[in-house]
């Protein structure tokens, strides 16, 4: 269910956000760097790769979008 709205939510804010999916089994060093032990994990980074926040998995599209924008420090307008 959640996968159906993650990409459209990011696309809605494509001027400020980009979705990058990684396979933590194939990239364990990256998983360790960002302390990812399970999926899905949404880590919000700035343009320099610094972590801004994390968004917990959520099956509610509106709440997921609000949390994503909050973690990215963006307004919902």
Short synopsis of the structure:
Helices cover 35% and strands 12% of the residues.
In angstroms, what is the radius of gyration? 12 Å
Mean pLDDT: 91
How would you describe the shape?
Answer: globular
Largest sheet: 2 strands, antiparallel
Which spans of ≥5 residues are poorly predicted at pLDDT below 50? none
Number of domains: 1
SSE order, one letter for each helix or strand? HHEEH
What is the straight-line distance between the termini? 25 Å
**Biggest sheet, spatial arrangement of strands:** 1-2
Number of helices: 3
SSE-based structural type: alpha+beta
Question: How much helical structure, as a percent, in the residues?
Answer: 25-40%
Strand content: 5-15%
Q: What is the count of β-strands?
A: 2
What does this structure look like?
By secondary structure, the protein is α+β, with helices and mostly antiparallel strands. It has one domain (3-71). It has 3 helices and 2 strands; from the N terminus they run H-H-E-E-H. Strands 1-2 form a two-stranded antiparallel sheet. The longest helix has 11 residues, at 61-71. The model has no long low-confidence stretch (mean pLDDT 91).
Write the layout of secondary structure elements.
Elements: H1 3-12, H2 28-33, E1 42-45, E2 51-55, H3 61-71
Offer a few descriptive terms:
77 residues; alpha+beta; two-stranded antiparallel ribbon
């Amino acid at each position: 269910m959640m996968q159906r709205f993650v990409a459209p939510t990011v696309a809605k804010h494509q001027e400020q956000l980009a979705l990058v999916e990684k396979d933590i089994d194939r990239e364990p060093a990256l998983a360790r760097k960002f302390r990812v032990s399970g999926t899905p994990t949404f880590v919000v980074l700035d343009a320099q790769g610094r972590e801004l926040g994390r968004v917990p998995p959520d099956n509610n599209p509106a709440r997921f979008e609000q949390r994503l924008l909050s973690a990215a420090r963006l307004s919902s307008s």
